[in-house]
């Protein structure tokens, strides 16, 4: 079998180009997986706040003002992968709940996920992905008059 000396480095160039594409796709998959993991943490935190708000819609405790106990419950539900007590990155919104049984309470938690791969950010046009989780729950206490 004879080799053409003009094609000596062709395999190396093909490997380099293919490896670049494969590593970019792999980095995108890792970033997407971490963003999804962050969404699950946000959803769980919003669910924890909505559950607490459905059981205690008017009982905010001695050190809480209107809605702060629900927000505190959301903030304490997770520290990884999203640090929920960081107001620079996480926004928690709790609209005024209905005050008696049968009403609803909605807890929304928003977070800007920062991409770890700079190349992916330049392709998408942004280095962050906004993630929002919203949970609505039915108020169980107190009875309506």
Structural account:
The chain has 145 residues and is of the alpha+beta class. It has one domain (9-138). The protein is built from three helices and three strands; from the N terminus they run ααββαβ. It has helices at 10-55, 68-75, 118-124, and strands at 90-93, 104-114, 128-138. A three-stranded antiparallel sheet has the order 1-2-3. Helix 1 (10-55) packs antiparallel against helix 2 (68-75). It is rod-shaped, with a radius of gyration of 24 Å. The model has no long low-confidence stretch (mean pLDDT 83).
In a few lines, what is going on in this structure?
With 145 residues, the chain is an alpha+beta fold.
Fill in the keyword field for this structure:
single chain; 145 residues; alpha+beta; 3-stranded antiparallel β-sheet; 3 strands; rod-shaped
Shape: rod-shaped
Q: Rg, please?
A: 24 Å
Which residues form runs of ≥5 with pLDDT under 50?
none
- Percent helix, as a range, is 40-55%
Average predicted confidence as pLDDT: 83
Topology:
Blueprint: H1 10-55, H2 68-75, E1 90-93, E2 104-114, H3 118-124, E3 128-138
Helix pairs in contact: 1-2
